[in-house]
Amino acid sequence: MHKKINRKPPIGEGEGAVSIDRQKASKDTLLTAAGTGGVREMKEYVGMVGAQIAQVLLIIVSKYAIADGMSNYSFIFYSNALASLILLPLSLIFHRSANRPPLTFIVVCGFFTIGLLGFFAQVFGYSGISLSSATLATTLLNLIPGFTFILAILFRMEAVDLSLTTQAKFIGTVVSIAGAIIMTLYKGPTILSSLLKSEISQNLLVQPSNWVLGGIFLAIDCVFGSMYIIAQAFILKKYPAEMIVMFSYCFVCTILAALASFIVEADLGSFSLKPKIRLMYILYSGIFGSAFQVTVQSWCIKRRGPVFVAMFHPIGIVIATFIGVIFLGDGVYLGSLLGSVIVVIGFYSVMWGKAKEKSVVVNNGGSLKLQNEESPLLQDVVEEQIT
Which of 283, 301, 141 is nearest to 233 (CA)? Predict the structure, then answer.
């Protein structure tokens, strides 16, 4: 008489081994995805810092271009026209007809909408710069994160709850704006003085008698700028070809600037490119201030959402401070240093909240899921099945 013995398979055999192999594969894929995602995110951070540098320099260039006799409309026309000529061939190269999204009536209306919002933002922005100073313009741009965060909540692009991530983003936004205000209102004693005395620095820091009106125009610019960022996020969701979107944006701004100049301006002498220094202004604003800056911002909006892009504006005043110290002969003051530290703290708080919104979960079935607490309006859930 034989006894039936139930023997469990040793470790490494049967379903247990398959389960262990799946878990190991999931962990390996998790580490690979995390490393790849980190590299991609670094590109976005570097890109946005570069875009902020380009924007600060654009503010300085536009101040001198308008002071040299160019009108707001002529400067907008030439800048966006050159950017359109640059982005047209690039959009055809990077977005070929085979993988190009379908062009619908809603998308075309979206192109016109972001072009109209961007045009109004530029008109009020350059008017404010001409009436006040480049320093005030750089400072007031820090209102954009607050406006964008509010609009993102209203359009359900950002989750509103009492979670730690939401609190970090909200507090970080307020702290960054507060730091920028401190840099503006509080000068303090000199910490580091520069031997370089620049006439450019004096022209940028001067506040004319109508700087209040200029500040109002710059605040309106921030409102239109925030609306432009939100509208761009909507369009990129429906038409994820950022270079075509940005070409359309620059082209619409070019047409609107030409029409506005013919209606508003009686003398078209501001369109003259003489003296030759005006050509240098246009080359920089078209290549770096328009084509490079708006394309990088659009790419980051598509990948990370509008709040991520808007939160880099407080970094602009820090960049402006360093540019002033190194190239314009400005000194380093206690207010600038203190405000810069506060801006960086607020910036990292928001970035920490944005990073915590994404969590990678390895489930028992062996699939790797990227979960995002943001609305699916901006980012879809990504799933990679491990077989």
Answer: 301
